[in-house]
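Researcher: Re-running this chain for the archive, since the previous output was lost when a drive failed. Same request as before.
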Amino acid sequence: MSRQHFFIDQQKKTEQDLNRIKIEIESIDREIEKLFEKLDISPEKLKDFADEKKHAPEEWEEMQKEKKKLEDELKREMELVDEPSRKAQAFENLRHISAWTRV
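Model: Regenerated structure tokens:
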């Protein structure tokens, strides 16, 4: 396989990976919206509630560790993306996901 074909194949794989990630993010966003509707709350109300220490569950430390683990996993996946312009978009998506995991 020539070097040019290799890079084209890598680019196609990267695009497929990004599309897969984008679809997963969109699916997660839809599920989050459904949950907010079901609970009749807004993201802001949830954040305000969670920020109050008296509402912190006993498992708070464990939840924070799991959150960190998920964020690290997402970052590693994003770092595997080769193309710089797509990588920037992938990191923007990661930022969007991270906003939801701050709750």
